[in-house]
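Quick start: what a row looks like.
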Amino acid sequence: MAKKKVQPTAPANEDPKSNVVTLDIKTPLHAASERRAHGKSLRDKVSRQAQAGWKAPRDRRDPVDLLIESNQGRLPQLIPIRFGRMMQSPFTFYRGSAGLMAADLATAPASGLHVQACGDAHLLNFGGFATPERNVVFDINDLDETLPAPWEWDLKRLAASMVIAGRALRLSETDCARAALGTVRSYRQHMADYSAMRALEVWYETIGVEDVIVALNEGARERIKQRLEKAEERSTPEILFPKLVEHRGDTPRIKDEPPLIFHLSAEEMPGLKTGYTEQVALYRASLPHHVQVLFDRYRLVDVANKVVGIGSVGTWCGLGLFVAADDDPVFLQIKEARPSVLEPYAGKSVYTNSGQRVVEGQRLMQSASDIFLGWLTNAKGADMYIRQLRDAKISAVVEDMDAGLLRDYGRLCAWALAKAHARSGDSACIAGYMGSSEVFDEAITEFAVEYADQAERDYRAFIKAVREGRIKATPEE
């Protein structure tokens, strides 16, 4: 008897105008073996070898033009700081230029399977943070660009970041390629594992501290434990409050430390006149009811601008100080959410508020998210999302890595990425496409090495533009 043809289940929503990863209840359910077979059949249209290598198309846009365009709507006085941070190395340039790679990935072959994508899956957008249950987990921790898109886009950006990081560490080309290869292999193997798990098992999956320690080489384990202890300590109100706050009379106020922390004028922040009453109400409405009960114990006493990261510099990023009592503060980070860099190529978000896009994507991709995660539209019409500041957050220090630790860390990031993709996409289809051999691993590694070369060429063009005065950059001391 002829086998029934299996239709793709990711993305299940076939509406070309929509990019929400949803289940179509009209589509019959299929066994994992059938979905793996369907994934394998997709190689007939786009072979695994077709994913290898990178060659810039003839009509590729000037990367400096794209970077200048990405400044639209940013605070003008902060743009030179953004470019100054990108000047430090090809690796920092890569971190701040997700939009360039999004344009390039859109021209590359893809299997046709979509997931909720991170959109900027370089290795420093992974790390540890505390869950609402106060357990520290390892996961993707920056999802400003999240959007449903081809799963390969995230994996290719992660693999290329391993090569660029390895070169920044002055590792051999062999070690850089091994780091990328190990990353892709880890993603493939973990996706195969998820394809054999029950749906609830995948949803409950977390990568805890002990998993991280086991995944790293013995020499790095004690350092990780020490850094975790410091991160947890730095996140406590007893440490944060005196460091970030000064008192003027009876009212606590966030300290100005220009150009990185500063207060804006009433003209720049129209909500200041009313004490941000309307904005706080909008944010509160985005929280689950049980969190609203907790949030109602606090009142907002101050807001300041805070420069963070590289790609976000120049967008509005605030620090809000809320207090329940004199000795009971909480700091919330208030970040502007712009349209994802993937949207010109993967379609517009179905969420009219980009802050909601980030929050909903984060809740979908992470095993656990911050309890204060919410969104609003500010008085100037900008979309924002909010989360706690430094909730036991710990990030990798690339400068401290050797070849072995870089490989270990890449495998860990790939595990987290596979877990995140398996929550929204069809793990069996994706696993079937990749297969059990290293053909796919080697193809993506070849792409990663050649795209790292492209990133270095773009970096040189960027530096030349700075020297010629085409763009202004303020290097940090």
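That is the whole record. The chain is about 45% helix and 15% strand. The chain has a mean pLDDT of 87.
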